[in-house]
Amino acid sequence: MSDPDIRPGETTVELPAPGDAALRFIGRIRTPWAQREECPRQGRMDGPECRIELNPVWHPALNGLEDYDMIEVLYWLDRSRRDLVRQSPRSDGATIGTFALRSPVRPNPIGTSLVRLVRIDGGTLIVRGLDCLDGTPLIDVKPDRCAFTPMAPPKS
Amino acid sequence: MSDPDIRPGETTVELPAPGDAALRFIGRIRTPWAQREECPRQGRMDGPECRIELNPVWHPALNGLEDYDMIEVLYWLDRSRRDLVRQSPRSDGATIGTFALRSPVRPNPIGTSLVRLVRIDGGTLIVRGLDCLDGTPLIDVKPDRCAFTPMAPPKS
Q: ipTM of the assembly?
């Protein structure tokens, strides 16, 4: 009841220790935003260039990505609490379910962004359209589903 | 070299134990596809209805999701190997980097799908557009980024 991070009307649940599956971070995202308050609410394609730095072991896995203009990026929102089922994002105190929001506060705080790939410098992607904090751990990169045409023919 | 799951030209890397972050599964996805060979390559909006079953603790977190027609679903591709940096999806043996594919084989095997929300039955979402195996563990559900208008005004 006295948790200072909870707004009126918000609801938490008791969670078991996580551990159903484990992630390996594959790199880091560098953005101009060092504090949560500085981050834009949603990324914009005319926003600043940001850097996605892949760990060296994964550099060969970028081969072919240069053919795509739009890519999907997954990252771990490592400063987010995970136990809110209802949240109060508005100043009027109205609450809404966590799954009806794109808030970073969620049971598995994974952010997904669709970004424009400006260029690839070795193992670093230069992109526009991110909205996350500087230093955010990277989970995955893949071609945008709309642009991606499977190399293998559709199954019959 | 004798790994029967590796195609010619594919490359693996040695990975440390995972553990940078831990996921909690929040439910299960029920689809008509029990074997990988049966799954469609990409989900279709005119595909069959599938069920996303949330664990009871998360049912209140669905409140408000009914306002959205299109939702984003994240799930764990629990049968996928995670150490391929280059893959050979075509029969001609050409290889391409893992991050230039939407293959389930990736360092963190998280699938993302954009699906049509047909209806919500209690704690179960009925959707169209999935392509994953029956029983796939659920990680997250959120409104499609295109449809989602933040309830809070943009920051100045």
A: 0.89
